[in-house]
Amino acid sequence: MKALPQKFDVFILGAGPAGLCAAIRLLDMGHAVGMLEQEQFPRSQIGESLSPGIYNIFEYLNAGHLLEDAMHIKNIPARIIWENNAQIYDRPGQENGGIVVDRSKLDQELLQFAVSKGLHLVQPAKLKHALSFENGWLLQIINDSSEISINSKIVLDARGRKGTRLNERLSIAPAAVAAWTHVANYTGFKESFIEAVDEGWLWGSPVSGNRYRIMAFTDPLTLKKNSESHLLSVISKTKLFAPFASIGDNAIATCSVTSFVSQNPWDRQFIKIGEAAFTLDPLSSTGVEKAMRFSLQAAIAVNTYLKEQHSPHPKQFYEEKMIESVVNHAHWTADYYRTAWSCNEKSEFWMKRANFQLDISKNTTGFTLQLEKKFNDHPPEIERRQAGPIPVDYILYKLWHEKIDVAPDVKFKAVYAIDKDCIVIKQAVIHPALERPLVYLDQLELFSFFKSTNGKAISTIIDNLNKSMTIEKAKKILVFLLSNQLLVPTSV
User: Fold this and answer.
1) Contact criterion met (CB below 8 Å) for 311 and 269
2) Does residue 383 carry a pLDDT above 70?
């Protein structure tokens, strides 16, 4: 075993997907990274169902091979009762769709992959104290019966829900709890089920080891003291889960699934990531993917801080991205709960979620004040019709010799962007046709492009773009800007 250094650039608490994702990226950036994990691996872990976006993340980390295990279950079809309790919606399994994994095995393999890249691991171990000082943090760690002292410029807390105390959590949805079990040696169903009922909703899926996982999500106030009878009671009211009504002696577990955000996610270079920072409503089914994706942004912020320790940009960038994610998620889930048939029946579980209001009165910090403002200012979703194929060549042929200008309603705004793994400030394009300020379009920096475009013929613009990209890519970019009226013919 390699000797454990006493000083690190970054020390990470927790070896779940969020912590490991950040560790791998920071190691690739050349930083000294250590990690503490309380449990011995492999360890049992729920959250086996991963959304399709997980493939891109693992490929980005050069760890895509870990998702090719024969034990993983891919392309699972689903049966859903949601908007209409009299109709079952069948969703076929899709290539490159979601994947059900053995989390205990996958997490262990991802940890081994990180160690192979240079991660210094202390496992199993517990954090005893964390003391802030001018240049970072002093961590006192208990490993077996001995104590270890570690100095780190930055600490990333990736310990999941237990990484955030109850009084540090700001709820971004009504309280919720899950009661769950699995049916062992069960191969009767090869598909997932999702079904809304009066008291909440259920999810079921085949998981590794010839088991079928069943989870019921409900309000804590309606969860009876006997979780087994409550779960069976909910199952008895369903259509899809009726075959499981006699699950009998299977152990029933419960856990909190309330969606929350930390009221102070970046505190003196002690930074919460993953579920320690922000937990999603289980409705999204993208918890692991979102946690890892946000860890990639955290790694960029940390890398920038380590290069410019007096810059305010890393912390502001991190908090800005988190606020954007929290607000979008909270409004999306509320909207989706409204579509359930049970909500239309005015059931309490559903109405509380459809009409949730953010309350920061007990969690007032600089971060939560910004969050509240963004939450209340959240614009209504733009209804967009599905566009048909755009006849790229036909449009360009018609306008080939036309000179074009930047549309008068195009505005520019300074925003944070990422360049070479660091946070920078760049000018973004703002326009009614865009959902958000846009710095790049398919890696083309729009501000510089627009400044060099005014008054030029389309043929000339295409030729110039073709010097740095393929002709087909240049055409698609230009037609997108023209069809959305960010660029307009000079005569208009």
Assistant:
1) no
2) no
Q: Residue 371's CB: how many other CB atoms inside 10 A?
A: 25
CA distances from 67 to 204, 286, 318, 488 (A): 21, 16, 29, 46
| Phi then psi dihedrals of residue 353, to 5 deg | -80, -35
Rounded alpha-carbon distances, angstroms, from residue 120 to 12, 41, 139? 10, 15, 15
Provide the edge-to-edge strand list for the sheet that holds 49-50. Answer: 49-50, 99-100, 73-74
Q: What is the pLDDT of residues 274-313, one digit of tens each?
A: 999 999 998 888 889 999 999 999 999 999 999 999 999 9
Comparing 393 with 340, which gets the higher pLDDT?
Answer: 340
- Give the per-residue pLDDT at 382: 41
DSSP state of 457: E
DSSP output for 130-178: EEEETTEEEEEEEETTEEEEEEEEEEEE--GGGGS-GGGEEESS---EE
212 phi and psi angles, rounded to 5 deg: -125, 120
From the centroid of its chain, how far is CA 307?
26
Q: What's the whole-number mean pLDDT along residues 36-63?
A: 92
Instruction: Please provide the DSSP assignment of 186-255 as one string.
Output: --S--SEEEEEETTEEEEEEEETTTEEEEEEEE-GGG--SSHHHHHHHHHTT-STTGGGTT-TT---EEE
Token couple for 219: 């309000």
